[in-house]
Amino acid sequence: MGSINLRIDDELKARSYAALEKMGVTPSEALRLMLEYIADNERLPFKQTLLE
């Protein structure tokens, strides 16, 4: 099994982990689900928008 390392802002990590915990999903599960979706559908599971 492979692994992924990424760097993110500390605040984003804290907010994301807290939200995922409320959903009962680990960060690894969330990323795995997103990657499975991308592999199956060849697109992101959300609409891309640019923030200004």
TrEMBL record:
Top-level taxon of the source organism: Bacteria
InterPro entries for this protein: Arc_rbn_hlx_hlx (IPR013321), RelB/DinJ (IPR007337)
Keyword check for Transmembrane: no
Record flagged with keyword Membrane: no
Pfam family, one: RelB
Keyword vocabulary terms for this entry: Toxin-antitoxin system
GO biological process: DNA-templated transcription; regulation of DNA-templated transcription
Any one GO molecular-function label of the UniProt entry: sequence-specific DNA binding
Family: Belongs to the RelB/DinJ antitoxin family.
Protein name: Antitoxin of the RelE-RelB toxin-antitoxin system and transcriptional repressor of relBEF
Lineage per the UniProt record: Bacteria, Pseudomonadati, Pseudomonadota, Gammaproteobacteria, Enterobacterales
